[in-house]
TrEMBL record:
GO terms for molecular function: RNA binding; zinc ion binding. The keyword Repeat applies. PPR repeats lie at residues 39-69, 101-131, 132-166, 235-269, 337-371, 434-464. One of its GO terms (biological process) is system development. Belongs to the PPR family. PCMP-H subfamily. Keywords: Repeat. This is DYW domain-containing protein. InterPro entries: DYW_dom, E_motif, PPR_At4g14850-like_plant, PPR_rpt, TPR-like_helical_dom_sf. Pfam families: DYW_deaminase, E_motif, PPR, PPR_1, PPR_2. Gene3D superfamilies: Tetratricopeptide repeat domain. Residues 578-670 form the DYW domain.
Amino acid sequence: MRVSGILPDAFVFPIVIKALGTRGVWLHGHVVKMGHGGDCFVRNAVMDMYARHGPIEFARRLFDEMSERMVADWNCMISGYWRWGDEVEADKLFGSMGVRNVITWTAMVTGYSKRGDLVSARRYFDQMPEKNVVSWNAMLSGYAQNGFAEEGLELFNEMVSGGGVQPDETTWVAVISSCSDRADPKLANSLVNMLKEKNVRLNGFVKTALLDMYAKCGNLAAARKTFDELGTFRNVVAWNAMISAYTRVGDLKSARELFDRMPRKNVVSWNSMIAGYAQNGESAMAIEVFKEMINSKDTKPDEVTMVSVISACGHLGALELGNWALNYARKNQIPTSISGYNAMIFMYSKCGNMKDAERVFHEMERKDVISFNTLITGFAAHGDGLSAVNLMWKMKEYGFQPDRITYISVLTACSHAGLLEEGKKVFESIGAPDVDHYACMIDLLGRVGKLDEAKRLIEKMPMAPHAGVYGSLLNASRIRKRIDIGEFAAKELFRIEPENSGNYVLLSNMYASMGRWNDVERIRGEMKTGGVMKTTGWSYVEYNGKLHKFIVGDTSHERSKDIYKLLMELRKKMKLAGYMADKESVLRDVEEEEKEEMVGTHSEKLAVCFGLLVSEPGAVIRVVKNLRVCWDCHEAMKIISKLEGREIILRDNNRFHSFHNGLCSCKDYW
DNA sequence: ATAGGGTTAG
């Protein structure tokens, strides 16, 4: 072998081996043959190659065979063990070393950081006899990558105020990344100013980190400007960061545009797009993109992909699709993270399958607070308040502290199940209840009929009530027909969120149920003059593993004609059976809307009719609606379930309504 | 060194 016309010597070999990476293995033989095996630098390079690329045991054998070891030999072995996840051996070597240098200590800091053990990392960092910029960077990056933004920024302050070292580009990347986590525009600004003052040269990493920081701190324009000016630094990471920047603010169109335009995609690109759709209520699109990803074949889904996909299936109530996705993951040996299991719990409970949700929960070797919260929320949606409360008290036995979401979920569960005493106990056990917990408690009081107590609690709140608080009160007032309190709540709501049509509809329905048609007209008029639009949402039915979606007045479905035909037949049957007369006030809206060529037919009714058309007689029809179930629909579902002898399970955003033989499982709802 | 994931809500 020849390099530059001369035989490679001990100086060249280490460089060549390093440059070759894994492919350096074949050089090992040459080294021995040519007699350089005895040179300590060559030996170190070969050992390091095995420590980096494996097998680590080969490195260890070379290490053990050495009669004399340099500090670098020890350091390479320690880093190697950390790389292969062997904390015990790394620790052992560190403990048995004679002389350590700054690299040794830094390796320990990096090792513990990578494992997420920031406390141990910091212990080593603090004990270091001397620190250089790499040591500081190791600690700062550790904090940044593990979400300890606060600690990272604090340490950075220490570094610049008295650390005795100058930050380099790696430092800035870590600090900027911590700032991104904090999502604090002021801090971002001061960082940018600091960069200007110090006249820091910005490399590609720093620029991309800045892009991400701008985006996460709410300055989309600056992010885009940075992206456009990246030039040769505009790699796949920058594209992905920009895509996420758009999905974060719900601009799916711009995100998709970039996604379609980017020259190369990796798994993160796909995951960003899928998660972007999933997080913005476009679950069906999320699944479409997932299918595209599978078909494209050049990028394989990973565990992050599956989390979004499974969650999307949950939102859609698409059980067949969800099971197909889980099957795909199993067949392709995609590992399941805690988030993955949590998504499964979510999916099963959103599909009405609490047995499997509980099974997954109990099968999990490691759980986190979200696992508990998700299952508790599932119980809440199914009206199983006691299971929710019990699981919350059990959390503490498992060593988990309920967080604010736990309390929201469990109070919601109490509310749906009418568990006043249990709910009060839970509320009192919260150290410092926030405004959402008050909202839940007011909802609970309202639903059990204690409206005056609910109003008094609002007056006693230590913070300003938000719309949710008054919304709960208005809803309860409607159920209990307490027009006085209802008007009070509505007045506040019209002030806080004048654009929300739901409040107008709620109050209007309240008047309607009391036959106060003049007031109904008045509210509708106010809605019109205020320019308030009625919100609409999609309804979904899963059939044969495919999703069928409907929107109010939908005529785009291929079976649309049959659906409307069935709808009219049902209406005739309902009239013949005498339902329409009894429920005249209830169904007034339907009649009006359907007179207008059925333009206003609610999406869930269309979905149910489609279900009736395509499914086996007697089969359960499952519908998922994106918004809350409408009042007249609720009544109509009861009737249809009886007329057709079918069970209809309807899930709105957060709870299940099972209609069977003219009855509904959610008695308090309407 | 820079990019992606799960839970709450009238």
